[in-house]
Amino acid sequence: MGEVLDGAAVRRWCRLAADALGRTRGEIDALNVFPVPDGDTGTNLHLTVLAAAEAAEGLPGGADAASVWKAMAQGSLLGARGNSGVILSQVFRGLAEIMGRSGARVDAEVFSEALEYASHLARNAVEHPVEGTILSVLQAASTATGTGDGLTGAARAAATGARQALRLTTGQLDVLARSGVVDAGAAGLCVVLEALAAVITDEYPERYEIPARTQGEPAPREEPPETPGPGYEVMYLLDARDEAVHELREALDGLGDSLVVVGGDGLWNVHVHVDDAGAAIEAGLAAGRPHRIRVTYLKAVTPDQPHAPHVGRAVVAVTAADGLAALFESCGARVVRREPGAVPPIAVLAEAILAAGDEVAVLPNEPEVLSLAEAAAERARDAGAHIAVLPTKASVQGLAALAVHDPLRRFAEDVIAMTRAAGATRFGHLEVAAEEAFTSVGLCQPGDVLGLIEGDVAMIGASLADVARLCLDRMLSGGGELVTLIVGTHAPPGLAEAIEDHLRDVRPDVEVGVYDGAQERYPLLIGVE
To answer: Residue 225 pLDDT > 90, yes or no?
Structure first.
């Protein structure tokens, strides 16, 4: 197809690469021994490229090449999974910035420049680059483009150069040599580059070769035992100013390893392996707004790991406020306290879950705590307990779940009932802006009252009572029979009473419950069932 790489061709490449990784991901997973032997590199690369393909295919059929490149790069950034997936998303960004700028006409020089820039971005995203990985194979592919003739020759040369460099990775990293494997992430990159060459040359391979494991080198007799690596993989998207990312990198680098931060223009994808997952999330909170947080437990179960005591059914709830803690306890839950603005240590949460019983429902009650609770639950499951983490994103959802909790039901049925009750509860809260910021409904100034519904700013006003009334009117517009108001420490006297008076006027059919939550940050929490 010569030197034309239009939007349709970029879409074909993304889909071909995603399909090829889907077919080879099991073989790539089997190669995965670095940086941790968790056997998911092929799966992570497949999901990352699949997200890129779906974003590209979501554009109208006539979209130009620049738009498709941009959508593909953004899709990979948002959908990146694992260490190699995050690095690959930066590769896509580099290709998109250079080739998208050239439109549909891409020659060998532009192709070479794009791969070189992608290699530069990917290497700079990794805090401590290591040779014998996807980074060195990408660099080899970039260098090889100069040996090809025209765009088709450059694409073939890049794919061939990557393959040759892949075979060398076994000898570049001791852990690969001992295991007799090539680097898994680099093997996935070869598939992606071969798919790109196939689209450019219109020459499609029958299959994509993944080198099989060979006999590894024996370890030296005097080799000291390896130090156990970090226990958790933490990933999140981060809305943050570019200048805040430098300090975030320094903070996370001091917490663990395998640190990769990619993105730009206010949106970042963060990946790190740490022992203290809570500290990694708190570093993100200090830099900006982390979301889509994922925490994965990396360590295998040890023989001496304690087993869950068989003491029956329990509910564990997480909260930072004294009043909310008392509310949860009065409803029969065991409470794990966290500091305001912080997340609980996974070890503390896992210990509380294990101590609670052999059938435990966990109520995180904050989006930032949800993924930590999943990781803590995984540890408890490995120890023999049956754990269900309910996706409660607010305390009012946790209280709604507890209201239908019945320890006499079968555990699965109880979890289903609690999950339904939580999901049927719309939640909101009031917050006072600390600084000027753009929101989904406009610019707010320090001291403005923000009304948030299910995490999104829905209104801005000057009075807590006025904003609360507007919030409730919006939340009740979809129906509702019960309103829960949880008053915070800094709520002005009479706030709850003013809201009750308003509801008596406009919705006399609604039952209202008012509680003292003593939460510091939010003057008022709102639930509608």
So the answer is: no
